[in-house]
């Protein structure tokens, strides 16, 4: 298994998947003007863009959690995320060699449970 860590969350991927941190300003040369998702990975010939949001992070404040849940429930978060996905898709297409098809999976968190 390959682990990808974001904050206090760790996601394990099968050995054949190599997640790449994408929002790192060292490797993302246009981070000053383009938004980036947290992680990009390829699996079975498809490319996935992953943005991780964790309102249950132990260091998050109650006010921040409430604000996040409001953004999530009012679709403001979706509006914010579309720019991250768009910019990441464009950057990857221009600066990295894509393989296979490109996919996007959005996961919503509602009351601490994930749903797709």
Would you kindly provide a written description of the structure presented here, covering whatever features stand out?
- By secondary structure, this protein is α+β, with helices and mostly antiparallel strands.
- It has one domain.
- Helices cover 28% and strands 28% of the residues.
- The protein has two helices and eight strands, in the order βββββααβββ.
- The protein has a four-stranded mixed beta sheet, with helices on one face. A two-stranded antiparallel ribbon has the order 1-2.
- A hairpin with a 2-residue loop joins β7 (108-110) and β8.
- The longest helix has 20 residues, at 76-95.
- It is globular.
- The two termini are 23 Å apart.
- Mean pLDDT is 78; it is low at 100-109 and 111-116.
Q: Indicate the percent of residues in helices.
A: 25-40%
State which percent range the strand residues make up: 25-35%
> Which stretches are poorly predicted, pLDDT < 50 over at least 5 residues?
100-109, 111-116
* Main sheet characteristics: 4 strands, mixed
Structural class: alpha+beta
Indicate how many domains the architecture comprises: 1
Give the strand order, joined by hyphens, for the main sheet.
3-4-5-6
| Helix count, DSSP H or I runs of 4 or more residues | 2
Instruction: Evaluate the radius of gyration.
Output: 15 Å
Number of strands: 8
Distance between the termini: 23 Å
Strand/helix succession: EEEEEHHEEE
The outline comes out as globular
Average residue pLDDT: 78
């Amino acid at each position: 298994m390959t682990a990808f860590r974001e904050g206090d969350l760790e996601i394990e991927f099968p050995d054949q998947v190599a997640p790449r941190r994408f929002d790192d300003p060292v490797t993302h040369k246009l981070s000053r003007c383009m938004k980036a998702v947290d992680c990009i990975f390829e699996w079975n010939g498809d490319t996935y863009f992953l943005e991780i949001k964790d309102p249950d992070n132990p260091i998050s404040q109650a006010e921040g959690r409430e604000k996040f849940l409001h953004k999530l429930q009012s679709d403001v978060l979706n509006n914010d995320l579309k720019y991250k996905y768009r910019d990441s898709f464009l950057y990857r297409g221009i600066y990295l060699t894509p393989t296979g098809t490109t996919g996007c999976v959005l996961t919503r968190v509602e009351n601490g449970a994930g749903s797709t």
